[in-house]
Amino acid sequence: MTDAARTTATISRLGHQGDGVADGPLFAPRTLPGEIVSGIAEVSRLTSIRIETPSEHRVQPPCRHYKSCGGCQLQHASDSFVADWKTDVVRNALSAQGLETEFRPIHTSPARSRRRATLAVRRTKKGAMAGFHGQASDVITEISDCQLLEPALMAAIPVAEALALAGASRKTPLAVTVTTSEAGLDMLVKNGKPLDGPLRIELAQLADRHRITRLTWDDEPVAMEQPPVQPFGTALVCPPPGAFLQATREGEAALLDGVLEITKGAKRIVDLFAGCGTFALPLAQAAEVHAVEGEREMVAALDAGWRKAKGLKKVTTETRDLFRNPLLPEDLNPFGAAFDAAVIDPPRAGAEAQVAQLAKARTRVIAYVSCNPVSFARDAKTLVAAGYSLDWVQAVDQFRWSAHTELVARFTLKD
Ligand SMILES: C[S@@+](CC[C@H](N)C(=O)[O-])C[C@H]1O[C@@H](n2cnc3c(N)ncnc32)[C@H](O)[C@@H]1O
């Protein structure tokens, strides 16, 4: 390739996926604002990128797999740059809705703290290989030195490879979701061979040999040595296979600290999109909680965890689709006995319908936990228009080196 065929561009900002963006727009992965870069322009994407003038925020990526692996997007940027960029993503989303607020310093999970990951695992000529997909590619890259995953999760790599040898077809890679738990590895395998009698026996033996505490094969339970419990406050909960769990213990603790601070003093709390009780069960140490969640099995896990725990206040549960059927003011203020506070932690789409009802019910304090600054800002606008103040936002980065940002925010009803 001659230099004449190369385009030179100046990166002005990062896009939502963490790619550098130059005029055009021209997307240049793994570049930073202010950098002059050159490469081959293919429609709106720059490839074969050379950094002509590096940013002062460019650093040596800490992971040796970064070049080929698609698991991380921002290892070439300094921690301080990423912290400021993620905070600005939230600030800009709010400002697009005409809102501003106080920002607490971002909480970033440490390296090697991810407790859950989905590994791609395929059979090879020599055996099997587990890793992450490469950047925008189906190729699986090895991750033996991964800087993201907890050591206990790293230990799952050879186990996932053994599972592929036993039960992957030659054509389709397995998707193995691994979660570390108090009891050991909790593994859910998708895309495996059909579970016939001999395979079931082989997998059960393999689970025993590799100390997999629970093995689920395409939604079928294969082995459970002990329930793979997660601690939520003083309760121990056994989530359904593959159920949502905050990505790192540190990120969960930062979000929970915010939720506890916001709801402090409340005697009755409603926890909306409650999952398996990440917030509901710790909150029940000091308040009665009504936990509402769309997945029946998660609700059952939360309820079982509460029943086994000692010393918690009353927790009631409800399975409900909060998009189609949000709690209404009469549900939120039953018999005049209003909830003093609400916790809401919706999926990426946000909680448009439920937030409108919270505003109508005039629930005094709301702890909003979000994994999508754009839907959060939309819902924040609804609350502010209804007379709430957005007191502060704490950004929480538990997807270190990715473009994701999470947050917890406090809304209070103005008198
Ligand atoms: C971001 S997770 C939060 C879960 C929990 N608060 C936690 O921290 O572990 C969002 C939760 O919303 C649930 N969910 C998704 N769509 C829903 C809906 N339409 N109605 C009720 N719950 C829903 C998911 O099952 C998931 O548990």
Structural write-up:
With 415 residues, the protein is an alpha/beta fold. The chain has helices at residues 79-96, 151-154, 156-167, 197-209, 249-263, 280-283, 296-308, 329-332, 352-361, 373-385, and strands at 7-14, 20-22, 26-28, 36-42, 45-53, 102-108, 116-123, 128-133, 140-142, 174-181, 184-190, 212-217, 220-224, 230-232, 235-237, 268-272, 288-293, 315-319, 341-344, 365-370, 388-397, 406-413. It has an eight-stranded mixed sheet with strand order 6-21-22-20-19-16-17-18, sandwiched between helices. A seven-stranded mixed sheet has the order 9-8-7-10-11-12-13. Strand 14 and strand 15 form a beta hairpin. Helix 1 (79-96) crosses helix 10, helix 3 packs antiparallel against helix 4 and helix 9 packs parallel to helix 10. The chain starts with 6 loop residues before the first strand and ends with a strand. The model has no long low-confidence stretch (mean pLDDT 95). The structure holds S-adenosylmethionine.
Using DSSP, what is the number of strands?
22
User: Could you tell me the strand content as a percent range?
Assistant: 25-35%
Kindly report how far apart the N and C termini lie. Answer: 67 Å
Stretches with pLDDT under 50, minimum 5 residues: none
Determine the structural class based on helices, strands and strand pairing.
alpha/beta
**Largest sheet features:** 8 strands, mixed
Are any ligands bound, and if so which?
Answer: S-adenosylmethionine
Largest beta sheet: what is the strand line-up?
A: 6-21-22-20-19-16-17-18
Number of helical elements: 10
> Averaging pLDDT over every residue, what do you get?
95
Helix content: 25-40%
- Our Rg estimate from Cα atoms comes to 23 Å
**Principal-axes shape call:** flat
Multimeric organization: single chain
GO molecular function, one term: methyltransferase activity
Protein name: Class I SAM-dependent RNA methyltransferase
InterPro entries: MeTrfase_TrmA_AS (IPR030390), NA-bd_OB-fold (IPR012340), SAM-dependent_MTases_sf (IPR029063), U5_MeTrfase_fam (IPR010280)
Keywords: 4Fe-4S, Iron, Iron-sulfur, Metal-binding, Methyltransferase, S-adenosyl-L-methionine, Transferase
